[in-house]
Amino acid sequence: MNAVLVLTITGLGLSALYFLVAAGLSLIFGLEDVLNFAHGAFLSVGAYAAWWASQHLFRFADPARFTLALVFALVVGAVVAGLVELLVVRPLYGHALQQVLVTVGLALALSALIQGGWGADARAFWVPRALAGTGTVLGARVALSSLLTVAVALAVLAALELFLHRTRYGAVIRAGVENREMVAALGIDVRRAFTVVFCLGGMAAALGGALTGVYYGSIDPSQGPSLLIFAFIVVVIGGLGSIAGSALASLVVGLLQQFVNYYAAPGVGDLAVMLLLALVLLVRPWGLGRGT
Amino acid sequence: MGAGKGDLKVPSARAVQVVRWAGLAVGVAAVALIPFAPIGVPGLFQAPLSSPGTLQLLATLLVFGATALTYDLQFGFTGLLSFGHALYFALGCYVTTVSVTRFHLGLGPAMALAAMAGLVVPAALGAVCLRTRGIAFAMVTLAFAQALSIAVLDDPLHLTGGSVGLPLDSTRLPRAFVGVFNTANLYWLAAAYAGLVCLTSWWVLRSSPGRFWRAVRDNELRVDLMGLRAFWFKLMAFVVSSFLCTLGGAVYAVVLGQATPDVTTVDFTLALLVMVVIGGTGTGWGAFLGGVLYTYLDDRLNQVAAAPAISHLPPVLELPLSQPLFILGAIFVLMVLFFPHGLAGLMPRSLAQNARRRLGELVVGASRGQ
Hints:
- By secondary structure, chain A is mainly alpha-helical.
- Chain A has helices at residues 2-32, 39-56, 62-89, 96-118, 129-132, 144-166, 168-178, 180-185, 190-216, 223-238, 243-263, 268-283; strands spanning 123-124, 134-137, 140-143, 218-219.
- Chain A is built from twelve helices and four strands, in the order ααααβαββααααβααα.
- Chain B has a two-stranded antiparallel sheet with strand order 1-2.
- The A-B interface holds A 29, 35, 37, 88, 91-92, 95, 97-98, 100-102, 104-113, 115-117, 225, 229, 232-233, 236, 240, 265-268, 270-271, 274-275, 277-278, 281-282, 285-287, 291-292 and B 81, 128, 131-136, 138-140, 142-144, 146-147, 150-151, 153-154, 156, 266-267, 270, 273-274, 277, 319-320, 322-326, 328-330, 332-333, 336-337, 340.
């Protein structure tokens, strides 16, 4: 029973990380039909930004230092993603394939840059003492970092849903996901919404990167690309363009992976996820959700 | 004489053909004779062409050039964006290596086995994956390729050597492929593979099913409406391209002397994609050139990065310039933004035709004995 509970919570932590990456991917794809390969690099950028900030903010006491590091990661993530959209993706609107290609190139270049700057080896991520230990949930000892990750992902989910359903920009974005041409025809500048969505996605991914450091206790340049693949799977299973779908799919994928990896053999869980994706796509060859 | 002069201005199609075949023959001979050429090419290669190190590099260039061409067959010519092409390269690489090293087969049977796998697996997976299209197709192919990659890395059956890779047991190989002195044979093997891929691609693309690949790429619905099944053309392109790619993996295992898990990853597929786009999508020769160039830069930029000219630069410049993948990624981004047709698009079609015509005139002139 204890094992099941611990597995559930670590699995949920993993789901939370997947969700943070998938949310932005899903919105970007839903609105702009861009499969953003650079999203894994946004995650790495966030992870290293938070790590760098926490190294340089040692003057501050525990909670402030950690919060500031997260805020710094958010800002860097938003700026990098916004710049990518403005400089590289925007000139190619209308050329869906070229957009995918350009993000592939960016992913290569950005991760090489990060590797050049901080090396390929893992770096220990500083975690506040209050989060380093374990807590007791229903009699099982679970890592607080997993709980924090889940809590942050839930907060991001709530914030995104609020933003999408309660603000004017959110309405424009949702309408754009439904029918971009119609929104443009009504005289609304969809392009600005594109930049906003990229910034939001970049922030979520950067936050995911920082929390990857908390969750695993260390960061390295390969985390971004490997999380990106699972996030792709989450986005496709959840339906492209749907935040709630991504949240649900990330739950399924994270838990499936964690449980099968534990009860079968390490690696089998990852395999199971791949097969799940293949199965979903083959049962519904047109893909889930819109856009395919 | 006057009539003859008129003929000279417009060389016959036959003369152009002669020039084309002659050029091809010279090219093939040049590639085949490189191991006998102790010529240094300063700046491009560190050692003479016939030295084992350079031959090894050249063999790798040929294998990756040809593999990029196989990717272009399905991506550029048929419009299938697969993120799982690495699967077939890895299949060839690992079936060959595992058969030789673990099951003590000879190299011939091992490669035959790889070739068989290269027909059966793509036919089965292709039939499944091609039920989807667009992004869904890209994702399903990615999922299968990742599944193989995970299986190779985790190595539950203790066959693949996990993340370390698996050396090709050299005691089981034909003597001709073992040792530094026989690098020339490895080079010829790679050259033969490249020749096979080029020839097959040329032949397939000229055949009438091959023409329908391009029709499927341009307008799939129309092919279906003509009463033909686009599905079968796509499957055919998928199987042909994957089969040739599997052979490439098998050859690479011999050239490298081992199977490495690097070729199973999605990064390898993305590298193939980058090669094809840098060279020119849907041109064939452009993809080959892109593959050669990418592999060469990837190899050489590592050495350039260590050069004093770079390492003495201020960190702001030194850091990005010391990362080959950063340079390649940046080149790629710039190519996509500014030269979407790749290197092949930079060379105007008329230029190549003019050059061929000019040569044709010379040949006609020479054959007339002035």
